[in-house]
Amino acid sequence: MNIAIIGAGVAGLTCATEFVARGAKVTIYEKGPSIGEQACSWWAGGMLAPWCEGETAESSVVKLGQHAKSWWKTHTAQVQENGTLVFALDRDLSELRTFAKRTTDYQSVGAQEIAQLEPDLGERFSQGLFFPEEAHIDPRKSILSLFDQLVSAGVIFKFNCEVEPGTLSGFECVVDCTGLAAQDAIPELRGVKGEMLLLRSRDVTLQRSIRLLHPRIPLYVVPRGNGLFMVGATMIENTERTRVSARSVFEMLGSAFALHPAFSEAEIVEIGVDARPAYLNNLPKVNWRGKVLTVNGMYRHGFLLAPVMARVAANAIFEGYQIPELMDEYCY
Amino acid sequence: MLNMYGTALQSRLMLGTSQYPSPASLAESVKTSNTQIVTVSLRRESGDSLAGQHFWQMIQSLNVHVLPNTAGCHTVKEAVTTAHMAREVFKTDWIKLEVIGEQDTLQPDVYALVDAARLLVQDGFKVFPYCTEDLSVAGKLLDVGCEVLMPWGAPIGSGRGLNNPYGLRTLRAHFPDVPLVIDAGIGLPSHAAQAMELGYDMILLNTAVAKAGDPAKMAGAFAQAIEAGRSAYEAGPIEKRDMAEPSTPVLGKAYLV
Amino acid sequence: MNIVINGEPKVVHTEGLQDVLHELGYQNKVIVTALNGHFVSEPNRQQIQLKEGDKVEVLAPMQGG
Q1: N or C: which end of chain B has fewer CB within 10 A?
Q2: What three-state secondary structure class fits A274?
Q3: Cβ contact A238–B51 (<8 Å)
Q4: Does domain A84-132+190-278 have CATH number 3.30.9.10?
Q5: What pTM does this model have?
């Protein structure tokens, strides 16, 4: 089977991986010059944290997100399985209590356990929540790794090619994985702008993703090794994919500093921004629009849910599987 | 039935539209709350963004009255300009007037509030001022032409309920014929019921619903509590007593010693 | 001409406010405008000619409490 995929972000690359596994010949069209910063995926945190997402996301996200860790382990060998630690500053402890009520599969930890898990945070927090089954990856290395494997598997990549799904011929199926760029064709899509930072510091070490809860700007810090930390992210109902605001950076840096003072001396390596594509209920969807299969609406769950959505897409294409209406029905 | 600025209203719940986890969640909450009024705001929109357009389309599809606010305004000029802009876009004379005086409690700047209210009433606006339970400020707002008052229960988003029930009770007693809406600080349906039992006419909720675990379910719970509180007020509740008074009559009791 | 739109400096190639709004992609959108801190109603947008350095605000409906 000859399949064209438009978009080489996490959605397109995971789809390609699933299609290749079923024997398809895949061509991927990407408007950018390479796998890189034009994709929302480039700016992601890389947390595989289905239980933490339960705080605000639907239960189907929590259930389906649990498949992510093993998928990424199978395909990239770069998954850090150290769990997530969740904290709040003393004056925001009500946020921690609320978080604990809305999530599961965690242990309450005290000063001693925190010091054992993260020595650099031991003095700073006397209570927290530890989600032992969660994990994190480096999103950029992961999509580049998928890219390398797909190239080795014979997938044809056409960079600098911005194409309309309807104009492609010679393929039995066309799959649109273009994220927010599909907004004109999919009016129900909206953008949720996110700003993030990459900081470098040798004065603090973390083994796992840390969430610092806050009523307005909750923060997550994800270690990328070599002193590099991803710090994010804002969530602004906006389709803007550029323009980082001073206030967002100020608030993220302030929270990072509250997490650990070493971050005040950290080097700002990158400041990034993009807009997450989302449907009205924040759940991703696989949909036939005429002859084109769209895989979109990953919101803040790209790396968490792309593997499952890729499988649903593959089932729909190869087995004529009926795509369920509701995300809950995907929970097989 | 409640009447505010000539509009008859069956629902005594007003809903804010910010901080919901998703637009779908907001739409569902509007439905389960049975609200007839939602508050909205104005923000910068870039030429290639559709966010505001989508939001406005969705709100219009919900068939509710719209009450634009002057959130984030600190001066009379900002508030008045924002109100004029809101009137053009939302095509309504209704304006929820907020002029913030202090950043931690988000208390109104009462002097600017009264000045802005005066100017807006003169310009034909129907002003819904966000105020405190201060009687003299309330009096001045009514003097300059406001016909509705919206005193806080507690600081915006704090979820504390009614911080000063005595002050709120006094405000109600001083202005028995003015529609009074509790705006800000409500956390639980019981807070809303308490305010309705005090004789308040309506409750405006945002954080309590939007940040609840299940916003649509919480919106429904609030609707029930507000109805209960209002019915209780209309039914004439008993007063508190210091001593016990048996509810079962003692006359005619058998002598069984 | 250099003006400021929603706090961002921009170079525009027309002078009428209505034309500038078209240039920036706002046609057929539900918006409202202010110039240098003053509300400019829709009918007046046709008349307004912008000058170098003018500050324009373009607002749209948004969530609010």
Answers
A1: C
A2: strand
A3: yes
A4: yes
A5: 0.83
